[in-house]
Amino acid sequence: MDQLHTRCPHCHAVNRLPADKFSDIANCGKCKEPLLSGKPIEGTAENFEALIGSDQPVVIDFWAPWCSPCVGFAPVFEQSAQNRGEAVRFVKVNTEDEQSLAARFGIRSIPCIMVFKNGEAVDVINGALPQSHFEQWLDTALAK
Ligand SMILES: [Zn+2]
Description:
The chain is α/β, with parallel strands linked by helices and 144 residues long. It has one domain (38-143): Glutaredoxin, CATH 3.40.30. It has helices spanning 48-52, 68-84, 99-104, 131-142, and strands at residues 3-7, 14-18, 41-42, 58-63, 89-94, 112-117, 120-126. The strands form 2 sheets. A 5-stranded mixed sheet has the order 3-5-4-6-7. A two-stranded antiparallel ribbon has the order 1-2. Strand 6 (112-117) and strand 7 form a beta hairpin. The radius of gyration is 15 Å and the shape is globular. Zinc ion binds at residues 8, 10-11, 13, 28, 30-31, 33. The site of zinc ion has 8 residues, from loops.
């Protein structure tokens, strides 16, 4: 792949990035906000389609502030976001604020982690995993 198309999570503009220089050009050409910073992005009903419509796989953590396993899992998710860099986009969806997204994906038990490729859900897992287990699961899910 010579070029990677990614949607800006802030203004939704499509950015075409040369794959080999991906890490150099981390800001949106339109609004100058960071496209991929190695940190999870807040997913909302507004930016969700743009986020999952990108070329790179998207990992989504459906969580809520009152859920202690979710809060405990947050540093694991953040560490994986940092480990995977630009290759994978990490998104957090607060199911309390974004009830329409939680309903759309039938989220009943959290944390619920879903992997999307080309806008399609390819894998899902419930419950907080330790780092090594989460990385293993991600490897398998991303290979699908
Ligand atoms: Zn932008």
